[in-house]
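**User:** I keep going back and forth on a fold encoding question. It is easy to fool oneself when nobody else works the same problem. Could you pick a protein and write out its sequence and tokenised fold? Could you put it straight underneath, so I can go through it closely?

**Assistant:**
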Amino acid sequence: MTTQSWWKPLLWRSGLLSMGLSIALALSSGEAHAQEVTPEEAQNPLTHLRGLTFQNNFDFGVGEEDRTGYQLVFQPWQAEIGRGQWMRLRSLAGLPLLYQPDPSRAEGGTFGLGDAEMSTFWSPRKSVKRVAGGVGPIVRIPLATDNRLGSGKWSAGVTVAAIARPRGWLVGFRTYNLWSFAGDEDRPDVNQFFLQYFVLRTLDRGWYVLSAPSLIANWNASSGNQWLVPVGGGAGKLFRVGRRGLDVQTSVYYNAVRPETLPFARWTLKVQLQFLFAS
């Protein structure tokens, strides 16, 4: 067995082990009120709920050899860490476990942790006519175990979220821009834009359909290589597991616009689990 092929089983075993341990942690902590949770509330970035999200991203068609990459993102989210008479304070964190294939070869790649992100939202305690918003700081921490998996820079910016909830729908967005301010001086500076918009329609018995692509722009890249623009969508279902809520979601996105100078995939399959708890 070659060194390159040795990483493949390690990747999948590590991903499955991480997911198993995370699920065990989620099931052993807190109490949920699944009967009070709706699909709109489960997907709302400004929700009053707490949760643990495990997002599996399978990237197909990477580079010249049509390689397959993988990303498992662990996200503890919407933990209400403080409140006032008028405002709520919520946090969101993300830590990715990555396999990035060598885009120019049929075998080989890099496996490890990526950079972590932490953000906080201040938002009004009460929405106005089913419309709500939030704003706060975001920071990216250079925890990547390999230069190819992270920027090597501390970066920060301001993140904004807004949602509207017409009956049976959830529409909104979350966006930020990150600028580097410290880190490895030999690595390129960070000036990156992120926008995720989402449209969700609830169906019967906990089912829903949605589109929630994540658009990314690297303002320091050359013209024509700045944007990653996916299009697509999927479906999900909200379950009740004992006294806990479980949201299962699958979606497919085609990267209609993608940089040619970086190994971005043509297609991405997302399989996401969310464990929901009362705040």
About this structure: The two ends are 49 Å apart (CA to CA). The chain has one domain: 3-277. The chain is about 10% helix and 55% strand. The helical segments are 3-27, 39-43.
